[in-house]
Amino acid sequence: MMLRSGRKQAREVYLYESIGSDKEGNEISLLDIIEAPDVDIISDMERKDNVIRLYEIMNTLLTDREREIIRMRYGLKGREVTQRELAKQLGISRSYVSRIEKKALLKLRNELERI
């Protein structure tokens, strides 16, 4: 290949050609760097279906207070909130938040196991 002066000549690069090593001394190739992670479409779809089913169960099975506590405790409504923070926000004791949370989780578990 003829190039004008001042330009470097292009070189072929192979995906499996070693381009260096990682911190542990293992050889890495260009493919290792550009390779996309495997996407498990089936698992992703199942996870989305499970989330939809969980919200449906929460909306039909739990009381408004139980639903609110579960959403806030597990970050389904923004950040996760501690039982102590929830108790303060709701004007109830932390132990009462704990009892409501346990009761709601038991309802959800029983319903999900039944399905």
Concise summary:
The protein has 115 residues and is mainly α. It has helices at 30-34, 41-61, 64-73, 83-90, 94-114, and strands at residues 18-21, 27-29.
Structure description:
This protein has 115 residues and is mainly α. The chain has a domain at 41-114: Arc Repressor Mutant, subunit A, CATH 1.10.10. It is 57% helix and 6% strand. The protein has 5 helices and 2 strands; from the N terminus they run ββααααα. It has helices at residues 30-34, 41-61, 64-73, 83-90, 94-114, and strands at 18-21, 27-29. It has a two-stranded antiparallel sheet with strand order 1-2. Strand 1 and strand 2 form a beta hairpin. Helix 3 (64-73) crosses helix 5 (94-114) and helix 4 packs across helix 5.
Q: What's the overall average pLDDT, rounded?
A: 86
Distance between the termini: 68 Å
| Structural Rg | 27 Å
For the record, the CATH architecture of the domain at 41-114 stands as: Orthogonal Bundle
- Biggest sheet, in brief? 2 strands, antiparallel
CATH homology superfamily of the domain at 41-114 = Winged helix-like DNA-binding domain superfamily/Winged helix DNA-binding domain
Just give the CATH class of the domain at 41-114. Mainly Alpha
- Number of DSSP strands? 2
Strand order of the main beta sheet, please? 1-2
- The percent range for strand residues is 5-15%
Predict the CATH topology of the domain at 41-114. Answer: Arc Repressor Mutant, subunit A
| Low-confidence segments | none
Summed up, the helix count is: 5
Structural class: mainly alpha
Shape: elongated
Helix content: 55-70%
H-E order: EEHHHHH
